[in-house]
């Protein structure tokens, strides 16, 4: 496979899928993005021919090291890349059993410097605004 052709195929993708990983006590996992210095969910862009849910599962496995069970679509947000190119982020809620939640870790240190669990109603100041809006939709407390 020619890497240049592969790059050309994915360069125009303007859709991303992001997981809101929620453990049984209602807290959600966010990673601190190295480049931007903001807390964000785990996920990334869709590859050519890939569904949003497949991309979500692949990205979470690559970035956080867990296999997702059932996921529920939450919402979407319009965003823009640093160069102003618009794109759409599809958000999914993934309620993790305790044993899975305990395995969530940062596997891509070039993307995320650390991981922390937050109450969706009590977030730090440096959360991406689009993520903050989405996290307001997530119920806190026990999800049993």
Describe this structure in words.
The chain has helices at 3-11, 52-64, 98-101, 129-135; strands at residues 15-22, 28-33, 39-40, 42-45, 72-80, 86-95, 112-118. It has a single domain (3-135), classed as Nucleoside Triphosphate Pyrophosphohydrolase (Alpha-Beta Complex), CATH 3.90.79.10. It is 23% helix and 32% strand. Residues 1-10 have low confidence and may be disordered. The radius of gyration is 15 Å and the shape is globular. A hairpin with a 5-residue loop joins strand 2 (28-33) and strand 3 (39-40). It is of the alpha+beta class. The protein is built from four helices and seven strands, in the order αββββαββαβα. It starts with a helix and ends in a 9-residue tail after the last helix. Strands 1, 2, 3, 4, 5, 6 and 7 form a seven-stranded mixed beta sheet that branches.
Keywords, separated by commas or semicolons:
Nucleoside Triphosphate Pyrophosphohydrolase; globular; disordered N terminus; 144 residues; single chain; alpha+beta
Task: Describe, in short, the structure shown.
This protein has a single domain (3-135), classed as Nucleoside Triphosphate Pyrophosphohydrolase. It has helices at 3-11, 52-64, 98-101, 129-135; strands at 15-22, 28-33, 39-40, 42-45, 72-80, 86-95, 112-118.
Radius of gyration: 15 Å
How many runs of DSSP E, i.e. beta strands? Answer: 7
Enumerate how many helices there are, as a single number: 4
Could you give a short account of the major beta sheet?
7 strands, mixed
Shape, principal axes of CA atoms: globular
CATH architecture classification: Alpha-Beta Complex
Order of helices and strands: HEEEEHEEHEH
Percentage of residues in DSSP E strands: 25-35%
* pLDDT averaged over residues: 87
**Unreliable residue runs:** 1-10
Class from secondary-structure proportions = alpha+beta
Which fold does the CATH topology refer to? Nucleoside Triphosphate Pyrophosphohydrolase
Tell me the count of domains: 1
CATH classification, class level: Alpha Beta
Distance between the termini: 46 Å
Helix content: 10-25%
